Amino acid sequence: MSSITITGGGLIGLFCADILSSKHSVTIIEINAEIGFPANFPGIIHQNQNLSKILDSEELSNLYIFDNGNKINFRTEWFVKLLSHKLAKSKVDIIHRTRIESITPNKNRLKLQLKGSESNVKIFYTDKLIDFSETLLPGPKGQIHTIDISLDQIIKPEIPTKQFFVGTCLRNNLANLHESKLIIERSDGLAEVWYELGEKETPKQGWIESKNLNAYYDSKIMLVDDYYKKAQQIINTMVIQ
Questions:
Q1: 15 near 92, Cβ under 8 Å?
Q2: Nearest Cα to 8, choosing from 102, 192, 101, 135?
């Protein structure tokens, strides 16, 4: 069994932790107070059984699942919460509000110097580090992990991203929105509408909430199934005992 550390709680990182946790000791170091927030992926998956398979027996009612006939839509924030619960049950250690200050080689392992309000451990050893920090939001006051050393034990996956404006509105306000790249209707009467930045419209009763984000994009907006496949691809390239 190897010890594997993942920086950042984005969806691909969480999927990597989920897959790896069956055979390895996994730790996620999250620089922000909450893991995977704000959610930067579309709440769409191809089949309902895929959703149940990923989350195992976790309660799905808070996802506000909506079957549009071709794909399954759901609430992303609750998906992250349920996935985090599953990881905790799988004994994945999630350390919030903590950043890596430095990395030095230690024989065949990595020695991480940690700093943060929720980590009692200042020195942490790991066999492998998967670094997603460049694709995620920085921490409070712009804090970032310091991962500037090139070692075989450090894996920096290439995740192409694109910037989007995402607004949540009432589903009955969708009629006058024609320029969006993606509309995700949910069973709670709301819909999430995705635009490339600069191509925004305003629904009749305005946005309930909105955010700008960088999402996984590879010639198209990638769905949850694609995020899972990317995680599997990353793990397949790793050399671990």
A1: no
A2: 135
